[in-house]
Each structure stands twice: as structure tokens, then as C-alpha cells.
Amino acid sequence: MHPMTEGNLKAAFAGExxxxxxxxxxxxQAEKEGxxxxxxxxxxxxxxxxxxxxxxYRELSMIEGSPDNLQTCIDGETYEVEEMxxxxxxxxxxxxxxxxxxxxxxxxxxxxxxxxMYADAKKEADTGKDIKIGKVYICPVCGYTVEGDAxxxxxxxxxxxxxxxxx
Length: 167
Description:
Blueprint: H1 3-32, H2 36-59, H3 66-94, H4 98-125, E1 136-138, E2 145-147, E3 165-166
Antiparallel strand pairs: 1-2, 1-3
């Protein structure tokens, strides 16, 4: 692939990915406002943006088999844990941005768990079989992730067990 085309597809993938997430966030807000049709429209168009992002990612030949995909996830989560979020958090602290400190701390704590989950999954996936995983609960406030039962209170942000989303 020509370098300019590759760069363009990578930029398009990033833009479509961000639009997808932005529209899902807007859909949640519309739901909170009681605007279910607007929320549905945001979700529908978010899906279209996901299709675009997937097409770009596929053209970039970045979709591999599950073991390689898991390694990509491990690499990304490890970078976030070891480099990105510690640096972002420190800068936010130095600049007195308390909301950003909280947000980056929440993400850092969840990413540690995600890196561990992906590493465990890769060990199983390397055997060629599907992984064994139980219920997964996610805290909707901070992203804390737990396999098994949700805690009574989130150990990162203190959210109650009833708030956790089950997967």
C-alpha cells in the first residue's frame, strides 16, 4: 500500500472510531433526557461509523487471528498502564486539573486489569481453543473490571454493586 493511502486510512480509522464512540456517548445523554428516538438515531449512525472503521482497519490488514489480536491488545493496554496514563495523570496533577486526574486514574486502574485479562486469555488462545471466562462486571463510573461477582462497592470509585453492568 502506498504510504499516503496508508496514512489516510489510519487517520480515517481514528476519526471513524472517535465518531462511533462520540455518538454512543450522545445516545446515552439523549436517553437520560428521555429522547429515545434521538438516542436510537445516534446508535444507528454510531454503528455505521463502526462499519467504516472496520472497513478501514481491514484494508490496513490489521485484523489477525485471535492470538495475534490478543497480543495487540496486550501491547496497547501495557503501553497505557506503563507509559500513557501515568504521564497523563502526572501532567493533570501538575496543572491542577482534578477531573482529568480522576479520569486518568480510573482508566489506569481498569487498564491494569484489562492487560492481565488479555494476557491470561492469550495463554489459552495460544492452544487453539476458546478461552474460559465467567461473568464479567464493569463499573459504569470508572471502568473497573472484574470476572466473577461484582464487589459490594467498586474498589476504585466506590460505586455500588447494583450499578455494575454484567457481560
